[in-house]
């Protein structure tokens, strides 16, 4: 009898195309995952940038408000009967809150600083000493400052004129004219970045006198007086703060000869504001204003802005000022 073997099909081998398709699918999934991860990272980055920008904007707005608050306090000071309630323009730090932003505000009468253009050379030399300049370097920098601001091209004994700047590879020479901005001080031969930042808050262009008003001068400026020590200065500042707290006028200074002192007060003030937002952003603003300028400017404002500088580097060894710290009120 004939045996039938049947016609069942033989088993099929897996198609190579199916393996390729699986690999393609896996690659597509990996690519989509990478794109999703990149998109998520970009979204987080943009969100963080937007948050930082918003915090910085809040800080800048609060710093602007701090200047306005200080100007308001200065303008209303003559009408406040109790001197203890007035803001003191002597480097005292006033702390307050604007919205949710903490403000540290320092108001300084420019008459309490050393004028870069007409200030006594020994006061400028004292400031250089307070900022750590060695005696030999101190005299050279002092002479370079004098060469910068005087109208001639004659070199002081240790100073610097155009040839000295050229030999140092600088693309400019001595100005031979008065300082017009504090930033020019950083260009003077021998003045490095650290020295400039140290001097910056103790010098001015708006005192217009050779001496300083000790009633509003900061500790660093008072220490620039010849033949005084830190104990004398600290005792004087304590007496000044005690009198202010009791509503009494500042004590008369006995720190140095009267030729170093001036009785000029105002009308130009510098206002330094450090604003720290709830999110941790810090903005710094320095404004210099002249009060009572409405009649001269004709714009109806009771003050005139002379300079407006943002993003100041921190003052070495200090926060906002070197005076007492108080909570602003009223």
From TrEMBL:
Domain of life according to the entry: Bacteria
Domain T2SS protein K first SAM-like: 122-206
Main location as per UniProt: membrane
Keyword Transport: yes
GO biological process, one term: protein secretion
GO CC term (a single one): plasma membrane
One Pfam family recorded for the sequence: T2SSK_1st
InterPro entries in the record: GspK, GspK_central_sf, T2SSK_SAM-like_1st
Membrane-spanning segments: 20-42
This protein's record includes keyword Cell inner membrane: yes
Keywords: Cell inner membrane, Cell membrane, Membrane, Protein transport, Transmembrane, Transmembrane helix, Transport
Subcellular location per the Swiss-Prot or TrEMBL entry: Cell inner membrane
Gene3D superfamilies reported for this sequence: EpsJ-like
PANTHER family, per database record: TYPE II SECRETION SYSTEM PROTEIN K
Record-stated family: Belongs to the GSP K family.
Protein name: General secretion pathway protein K
Species name: Thioalbus denitrificans
Phylogenetic lineage: Bacteria, Pseudomonadati, Pseudomonadota, Gammaproteobacteria, Chromatiales
